[in-house]
Design brief:
The chain is α+β, with helices and mostly antiparallel strands. Helices cover about 20% and strands about 40% of the residues. It is built from two helices and five strands; from the N terminus they run ααβββββ. A five-stranded antiparallel beta sheet has the order 1-2-3-4-5. The radius of gyration is 15 Å and the shape is globular.
């Protein structure tokens, strides 16, 4: 499947801060989940969420013109239904209305 998405963050550090802040301030998320671990890596970051009946680990790796993300979901009571999704993205330009070179 192919789709287009705009990441308006200035760089991956800003993307990390903005992503974690969205989870930390979302009341619906906080009702059933909590952030349990966050770590930086040389080319990205990862964070984990403990939710009712599951644990989810999201990992982002950034390249010059690419981003890969992995979402691992462990279903606590039924590990055979656990999953892992890899998403690959590549830069094709700036976000609409954004100054050239200012986005990721």
């Amino acid at each position: 499947m192919t789709s287009r998405v705009c990441f308006p963050s200035a760089d991956y550090e800003a993307f990390r801060r903005e992503t974690l802040a969205q989870y930390e301030t979302n009341p619906e998320f906080l009702e059933g989940c909590r952030l349990s671990d966050s770590r930086e890596m040389p080319d990205g970051f990862a964070f984990a969420m403990d939710c009712k009946g599951s644990k989810i680990v999201l990992t982002f790796h950034f390249g010059k013109d690419s981003v890969s993300s992995t979402t691992r979901t462990l279903i606590t009571d039924r590990p055979e239904y656990s999953s892992e999704i890899l998403t690959l993205s590549r830069r094709v330009g700036d976000c609409p209305g954004q100054a050239p070179g200012k986005g990721t």
